[in-house]
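Quarterly update, task 2.4: fe (ii) ion-bound model.
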Amino acid sequence: MTAAPIYVEPRLPDPRGPLSLAVTELLSERAPANHLLQVEASLADADPYGLDLHLALYICYELHYRGFAGVDTGWEWNAGLLHLRGRMENTFLTEVRRQVGEIDPDVTAFDEMRELAIEPADGEGLSYHLRDKGTWEQMREYFVHRSLYHLKEGDPHAWAIPRLVGQAKAAFVAVEYDEFGAGRGARLHQQLFADLLDAADLDSSYLGYIDHVPAEALAAVNLMSLFGLHRGLRGAAVGHFASTEITSPPGSQRLVAALERMGAPRPCIDFYAEHVEADAVHEQVVRTDVVGDLVAREPHLDRDVVFGIRAHAVVEDRLAEHMMSAWADGTTSLRRPLE
Ligand SMILES: [Fe+2]
Ligand SMILES: [Fe+2]
């Protein structure tokens, strides 16, 4: 079977401030032979959750995924650019650590995962809002915010694979195998989300909405890339992965209910229905075989797993609150409204 040609490499986004300008200006040139060139960019006043920092960081990470059309691939391992990326990561991670706060020495990853699985039937979060009174316009905005992640679903966590061993690795890959369509390109969860976007009359191209989404949506994906690309944060990457899988089935169930109530096109419902079923199995595998095995082998990573779970909640809550407050004010939650 031959695939239709697609644009694998997206267009380089427009800058939104001094950091993203410094990065995009560099990337428009050839990567220099001198790797140690310092990049002039100040982080002194950078907002750790600001759009400029998160767009610049997102662009740096994207060099490791699909790159950008016309951008020299030599930039991926340019030490000068990596140095700037490291400083931005540090600014972001320091703030996330501050928000997560002290982790009680008695808390274990096992307790934390058990707690995650307990959800009220009548909660107040975003998926409850969408289920009970959300509009189709709000749902389409939700798809747009989520498109950055779902169009590369599975990829940011996949960086963790070479850092795992034994049962934890085998089980992690078993879950990722499903995320990647279990051998069938048409069943890649990334593809299922592209189908959802097409059915909702939205742009399904990779990074198609990078100029529409706020910093909160970029930060949610940057956190995964940050955890995945640093071996020292592998415990946090596994915690983030566990949290994603454990919280997915009930949240997806509410989105199925929301979409059915709205009379949404079938591919939209199918994407979330797939996550109700598949993630119920993934949840069990992740708890016992991934996290259980990892912390048995490397007990010092237990707290990092807890940190990953809590950091996931911090960034996801920021994005959800952003959407909810925009909608409460009767405005769009996107930086530019959908046509
Ligand atoms: Fe998935
Ligand atoms: Fe899953």
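Highlight for this quarter: Residues 266-297 form the longest helix (32 residues).
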